[in-house]
Amino acid sequence: MNSLLQQKRQLYFILFTNTYALYIAAKGCLSCELVKHHEHGEQFMMIERWDCIESHQPSITHYRQEEMKQQ
């Protein structure tokens, strides 16, 4: 496997692990899951479930935007 691709996957996993800990501890967070694209292993998506929009809003407001844009 390409070393750069491996490093990218590891960074995504670290980012998810850090984010997961914050989200799952947040009031109103029901679950958080990282899924990998079945054809493009370097592409990930995080699925969050919240009890209501109002509970989710602080996670968007306080999360560092530059981390959300990393590819």
What this model shows, in words?
With 71 residues, the chain is α+β, with helices and mostly antiparallel strands. It has helices spanning 3-25, 53-62, 65-68; strands at residues 29-36, 44-50. The chain has a two-stranded antiparallel sheet with strand order 1-2. The two termini are 18 Å apart.
The CATH topology is given as Alpha-Beta Plaits
Rounded to the nearest angstrom, the radius of gyration is: 13 Å
Average pLDDT across residues? 78
CATH architecture: 2-Layer Sandwich
Compute the separation of the termini in Å: 18 Å
Structural class: alpha+beta
Q: Provide the spatial order of strands within the biggest beta sheet.
A: 1-2
The main β sheet shows up as:
2 strands, antiparallel
The low-confidence parts are: none
Oligomer: single chain
Q: Could you name the CATH class?
A: Alpha Beta
Helix fraction? 40-55%
Q: Give the SSE string.
A: HEEHH
